[in-house]
Design goal:
single chain; 126 residues; mainly alpha; Arc Repressor Mutant, subunit A; three-stranded antiparallel β-sheet; 6 helices; elongated; transcription regulation; WH_DNA-bd_sf
Length: 126
Amino acid sequence: MHLVPDERAHRRPIDEHTVCEAIAGIGDPEAVRGWADRFSLLADPGRLSVLLAVHRAGPIAVTDLALATGISESTVSQILRLLRVSGAVTAAKDGRVVRYRFTAPDLAPLLASIPPLEIPPLEHDA
């Protein structure tokens, strides 16, 4: 059990090889903490909605995000502040409007796996 830390070495495994594979599969504890922090961004429906909107439609302004998500502008601003600090989005001034852009390539595949809303085609008068 070459990967088992010394403080756990006294415990008896059922399958030593599987224990080492599991430890290798977990990887670096600091990296796990980092990913847990990244996933915490997605744990709130409001944050996830804002992040999906910016990912799929950005660059986008706070007012438009509030309209799209149904969340108040002040709450969207708070969410964006957290997403900026985490590095998931960046802000760029466009005249008097600040637009937010998705900047988390590590989260892109995960967000892309969430199916978007199916929008029915517009019916035209015949």
